[in-house]
Each structure stands twice: as C-alpha cells, then as structure tokens.
Amino acid sequence: xxxxxxxxxxxxxxxxxxxxxxxGMGQLCGRQPYCGAATxxxxxxxxxxxxxxxxxxxAPFAIIDLPFSVVAxxxxxxxxxxxxxxxxx
Length: 89
Known about the structure:
The protein is mainly α. It has one domain (2-82). It is 69% helix and 0% strand. The protein is built from five helices and no strands. The protein has helices at 2-14, 17-23, 35-46, 53-75, 77-82. α1 crosses α4, α2 (17-23) crosses α3 (35-46) and α3 packs antiparallel against α4. The protein is flat and about 40 Å long.
C-alpha cells in the first residue's frame, strides 16, 4: 500500500506532461497528437545519455506519468486535432 501511495504522490507532484505541453508553453512539441506521451518518452530516452543529468533526474516521474499522459492525450485528442497548427509549406 505504501508503494502505491508513494507512486501516486510522485505522479501528482511530477505534473502531467500532457497538460504542460497542450495548455502550457508547449516548448517541446506544442499542440500535436499525443505530445504529452512523446515528451515523457523523450525524457526517458534522454536519461540513458550519460551527460543529461536533467533527464536522469526526471526519468522516474516520466515513467510514472506516461500511462496517465496516454489516457489524457486520448481524452483531449479532438481538442488537439482542432487546434493543431497548420503545416507550413
């Protein structure tokens, strides 16, 4: 029970990548489908790099946040598609 409580606390303190990317500044990928999940995956991949201390510190939070981001990205998919930036030609 302690592990579940700790995991939920870490997820809430870590913040949701979907909310940060869709409704925030959108620094990594902006309003693209499944941007929150992609952000978490990039953080997890970056943690494998020896020089990336930032991603290594955030990797546990990204691992916990990933399933929540997938669900949240799916729920707001119509909003994301409607507000996607048009591709520049």
